[in-house]
């Protein structure tokens, strides 16, 4: 029996200016995306790219910021109906250079961290952010679909 599993690899990054307590949020419009709302920037890992390289590239492409020393703070994952697994490597960065600019992926802006719950957030952003900020948590896992949505666990 093969232990190999087809996998889709992606990333997101919580970019925080620790002096101002603001974070970068990206708004994805429902007209142009299969999911919408405010979320952290990120994207797919390309072939031949390390996970850290991919999040640095994706953040630059989507925000104009160059992050340094991104820290892996957790993983979000779930099974797909196709038998594949979708994995999101969750990073945090507090060191960056550049000027914030939006892209075709969505409008980006600095948001005060305590105002995030008041935004039109993408699905599961608040519990995902809680996992990313918790020193004793490292995985956000959707086990399977139920009638009411997904059964999720945080480890």
Provide a descriptive summary of the structure in words:
The chain is mainly β. The chain has one domain: Alpha-Beta Complex (Nucleoside Triphosphate Pyrophosphohydrolase). Helix content is 14%, strand content 45%. The protein contains two helices and eleven strands, in the order ββββαβββββαββ. The strands form two sheets. Strands 1, 2, 3, 4, 6, 7, 9, 10 and 11 form a nine-stranded mixed beta sheet that branches. The two termini are 28 Å apart. The relative contact order is 0.24.
Query: Which geometry do the CA atoms define?
Result: globular
Helix run count:
2
The level 1 CATH classification is Alpha Beta
Biggest beta sheet attributes: 9 strands, mixed
Distance separating the two termini: 28 Å
Mean model confidence by pLDDT:
94
**Helix percentage:** 10-25%
> In the CATH scheme, what's the topology name?
Nucleoside Triphosphate Pyrophosphohydrolase
Strand content: over 45%
* CATH architecture descriptor: Alpha-Beta Complex
InterPro entries: Nudix_hydrolase (IPR020476), NUDIX_hydrolase-like_dom_sf (IPR015797), NUDIX_hydrolase_dom (IPR000086)
Family: Belongs to the Nudix hydrolase family.
Protein name: 8-oxo-dGTP diphosphatase
Enzyme class: hydrolase
Please supply descriptive tags for the structure shown above:
globular, mainly beta, 2 helices, 11 strands, Nucleoside Triphosphate Pyrophosphohydrolase, 155 residues
Structure at a glance:
The chain contains 2 helices and 11 strands.
């Amino acid at each position: 029996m093969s232990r190999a599993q087809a996998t889709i690899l992606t990333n997101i990054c919580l970019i925080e200016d620790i002096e101002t307590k603001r974070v970068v949020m990206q708004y994805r419009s429902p007209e142009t995306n299969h999911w919408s709302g405010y979320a952290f920037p990120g994207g797919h890992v390309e072939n031949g790219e390390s996970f850290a390289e991919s999040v640095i590239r994706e953040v630059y492409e989507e925000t104009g910021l160059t992050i340094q020393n991104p820290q892996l703070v957790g993983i979000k994952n779930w099974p797909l109906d196709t038998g594949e697994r979708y994995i999101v490597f969750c990073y945090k960065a507090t060191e960056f250079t550049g000027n914030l600019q939006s892209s075709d992926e969505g409008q980006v802006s600095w948001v005060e961290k305590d105002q995030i719950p008041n935004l039109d957030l993408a699905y599961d952003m608040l519990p995902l952010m809680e996992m990313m900020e918790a020193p004793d948590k490292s995985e956000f896992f959707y086990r399977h679909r139920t009638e009411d949505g997904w059964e999720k666990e945080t480890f």
